[in-house]
Amino acid sequence: MKGIVRFGVSMDQALLSAFDKVLSKKGYKNRSEGIRDLIRDKLVEERWEEEREAVGVITLVYDHEVRALPEILTDLQHRFHTAMVSTLHVHLDEHNCLEVLVVRGMARKIRRIADRLISTKGVKHGKLTMTTTGRGLS
Ligand code: NI
Questions:
Q1: How many helices (H) and strands (E) does the chain have?
Q2: For residue 61, how far is its CA from the centre of ligand 1 (angstroms)?
Q3: Rounded to an integer, what distance in angstroms lies between the CA atom of residue 138 and that of residue 132?
Q4: The pTM is what?
């Protein structure tokens, strides 16, 4: 297993038991993969602070009958078109729409785009999921 390092971690029994319960609930087959995912998550989070190229997924739920709202949201997406990788629109029911936007660019810019879209009047719920291009992450 070239490149693999084994290391020991000391911790309180109760803390480890609680962690194992979470891993089991989430379907992890072993503790190592759970710990690797935690570390990767922390590294991705750290990169968002370091102002590198990142990928974000923005979800928006809104009522398309709110006056001018679909046009405002579309205009914003066009304004930031260089960062827009892909968009998905789902008509949830007669009134509500879900939009999923995949955005790629510098972390700060992605945050700005997400803030602008999510804070638009009439958006019922908006969320930015910060993820990675995958480069440099084993
Ligand atoms: Ni719709």
A1: 4, 4
A2: 9
A3: 12
A4: 0.83
Distance in Å, CA 115 to ligand 1 centroid: 21
Per-residue pLDDT of the chain (138 residues; tens, 9 = 90+): 568 899 999 999 999 999 999 999 999 998 999 999 999 999 988 888 888 899 999 999 999 999 999 999 999 999 999 999 999 999 999 999 999 999 999 999 999 999 999 999 999 999 999 999 998 888
Cα 49 to middle of ligand 1, angstroms: 34
Q: What is the distance between the alpha carbons of residues 109 and 54, in angstroms, rounded to a whole number?
A: 10
CA 112 to ligand 1 centroid distance, Å: 24
Tokens representing 59 are: 């979800």
